[in-house]
Q: What sequence folds into this?
């Protein structure tokens, strides 16, 4: 068996502490289903590529119904680590920096992702007769080069069909991509917010992020609608202060622009419908100001304080400044504008100088990258805030 050669090495250390649910997980199943579930679990625990996608889906569906989405994500992560789809060891090796900033009070970060270096997703190559829509379609499963990819299909937000998979080069622990089954192009709208909200409700403790639908304005894969989600990801922007002169604090809702290098509106509320209405309108209004250009990145969380959304305003006319392109020439996505630079490994004649800049001027580098992608300078915050105020008044009038 050729596949045996790519089989994983012994159980990695992170798995030893894995909290396996006790046998009570079968209590809700009838006798026959319980036997089937046990068989599937045994198959899963072999961490063997012979476990088909169909069997994986069935096993994860049982776990989902009994234990919820967090459990499914834990299992997928574990399985993909064990079969070598991604390397937990390499994830640990990413060079990480943090930089305290006295001006904003935020600790910015950067990472040099060795595993991800030069990665650009391309569809699996094969002699398959199927024509692939893009690199992240469900149709990529089973194709040569993707033998170790398994996913979980589930519905989100009023029956919209999605699947979730581990990203091949994670930036953080439990970094997944949530993708529509249908081949829809990337969108940024109220729907994005609703989907992410549903996701963080199904998987408590996760941070839901969206790139945008406009190239060079915080987009990743434009051909196919998707989100990025991370367990417990705390991003620098979450610690930015609200500017008092550009904030509205009501009992049921807080909205404010942040003291941060890119214009960002933070919305928090305990009232789901109000939260959705205000955030959704905010996205739409901003887009309407320059159709086809204005767009957003989103970071959505839910905790004991309620729902929270960071709407980061984007426009492709505002890009990384020329002098920073040696460090980061690719587009700047949601994680980066939210405060953590993701840089490729410095290479070429200037590699030493680039390393030195990241090491010694890192704070200035990440703040400048974010600032050069900012479409609204602080002197124009008044106008932006007027738009926000109108949206809040309409939202409150629901
Ligand atoms: Zn696709």
A:
């Amino acid at each position: 068996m050729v596949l045996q050669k790519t089989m994983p090495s012994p159980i990695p250390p992170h798995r030893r502490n894995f909290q396996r649910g006790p046998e009570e997980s079968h209590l809700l199943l009838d006798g026959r289903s319980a036997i089937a579930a046990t068989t599937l679990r045994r198959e899963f625990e072999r961490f063997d590529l012979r476990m088909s996608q169909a069997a994986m889906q069935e096993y994860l569906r049982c776990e989902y119904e009994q234990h919820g989405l967090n459990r499914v994500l834990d299992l997928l992560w574990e399985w993909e680590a064990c079969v070598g789809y991604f390397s937990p060891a390499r994830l640990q090796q990413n060079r990480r920096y943090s930089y305290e900033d006295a001006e904003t009070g935020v600790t910015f970060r950067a990472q040099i992702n060795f595993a991800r270096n030069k990665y650009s997703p391309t569809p699996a190559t094969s002699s398959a007769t199927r024509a692939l829509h893009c690199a992240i379609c469900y149709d990529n499963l089973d194709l040569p080069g993707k033998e170790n990819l398994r996913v979980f299909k589930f519905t989100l937000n009023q029956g919209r069909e999605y699947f979730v998979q581990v990203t091949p080069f994670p930036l953080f622990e439990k970094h997944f991509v949530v993708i529509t089954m249908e081949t829809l192009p990337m969108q940024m709208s109220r729907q994005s917010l609703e989907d992410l909200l549903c996701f963080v409700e199904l998987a408590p403790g996760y941070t839901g992020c969206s790139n945008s639908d406009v190239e060079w304005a915080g987009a990743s894969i434009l051909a196919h609608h998707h989100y990025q989600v991370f367990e417990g990801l705390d991003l620098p922007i979450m610690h930015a202060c609200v500017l008092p002169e550009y904030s509205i604090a009501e009992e049921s809702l807080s909205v404010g622009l942040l003291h941060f290098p890119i214009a960002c509106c933070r919305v928090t509320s305990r009232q789901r419908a109000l939260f959705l209405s205000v955030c959704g309108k905010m996205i739409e209004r901003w887009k309407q100001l320059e159709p086809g250009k204005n767009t957003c990145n989103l970071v959505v969380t839910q905790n004991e304080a309620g729902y929270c959304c960071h709407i980061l305003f984007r426009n492709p006319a505002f890009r990384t400044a020329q002098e920073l392109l040696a460090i980061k020439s690719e587009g700047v996505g949601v994680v980066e504008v939210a405060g953590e630079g993701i840089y490729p490994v410095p290479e070429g004649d200037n590699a030493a100088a680039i390393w030195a800049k990241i090491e010694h001027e890192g704070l200035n580098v990440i703040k400048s990258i974010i600032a050069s992608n900012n479409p609204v300078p602080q002197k124009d915050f008044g106008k932006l805030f007027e738009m926000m105020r109108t949206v809040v008044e309409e939202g409150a009038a629901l």
User: Anything to note?
Assistant: The radius of gyration is 22 Å. Residues 1-27 have pLDDT under 50 and may be disordered.
